[in-house]
Amino acid sequence: MDLISNLILIDTDMRRRAAISHALSGRGIHVEPFETISELAGAWPRSGVVLIHDEAGRITELVESMARHGEWFPIIAFSEEPDPQRIVQAVLDGAIDYIGWPIAPAEIADSLAKAMARAESLGNAKLREVMARARVERLTRREREVLGGVASGLSNRLIGERLSISPRTVEIHRANMLSKLGATHTSDAIRIAIEAALVT
């Protein structure tokens, strides 16, 4: 079966959705069009590559939705005449490719092929990173600082000295941090910190 046969298209513009679906139908690519991410969440696909029109916060919203479902699909973002900063932000948010609109059907097919090839190696690692980041975002600033200290191998006393707080206060923040991360041991918290790219 062709790995790029299924394209999950998310775009609020009906005409653009129709144009993309029509352009790709002749290339053997099945397009599942969705107007919104919440509409997609109500009919979660089994496989495919996501092509999403890039609007403020939408890639982050999509990545969070995928993290809740426990499944990651490669994301290709697109927009009209994107500037380099916007492309960089989309990639930081979770997209693995970015293309400008209007798009030639051959260009979409080529980007899909590349996305699927990268997804083979990125898939599980990307999902773990997304889920770890979502957990870390629940922490307060101080709890994140304590997590950084723990991940660096510092004792409660040394973390306290670094943050100008008592070791007992560090213990309280540490306990709260472990609870919010859903970590039973310090090693779990360190793994989550590494997966969230807080430490390398």
TrEMBL record:
<dbReference type="InterPro" id="IPR011006">
    <property type="entry name" value="CheY-like_superfamily"/>
</dbReference>
<dbReference type="InterPro" id="IPR036388">
    <property type="entry name" value="WH-like_DNA-bd_sf"/>
</dbReference>
<dbReference type="InterPro" id="IPR001789">
    <property type="entry name" value="Sig_transdc_resp-reg_receiver"/>
</dbReference>
<dbReference type="Pfam" id="PF00196">
    <property type="entry name" value="GerE"/>
</dbReference>
<keyword id="KW-0238">DNA-binding</keyword>
<keyword id="KW-0804">Transcription</keyword>
<dbReference type="InterPro" id="IPR016032">
    <property type="entry name" value="Sig_transdc_resp-reg_C-effctor"/>
</dbReference>
<keyword id="KW-0805">Transcription regulation</keyword>
<dbReference type="InterPro" id="IPR000792">
    <property type="entry name" value="Tscrpt_reg_LuxR_C"/>
</dbReference>
<feature type="domain" description="Response regulatory">
    <location>
        <begin position="6"/>
        <end position="116"/>
    </location>
</feature>
<feature type="domain" description="HTH luxR-type">
    <location>
        <begin position="132"/>
        <end position="197"/>
    </location>
</feature>
<protein>
    <submittedName>
        <fullName>Response regulator transcription factor</fullName>
    </submittedName>
</protein>
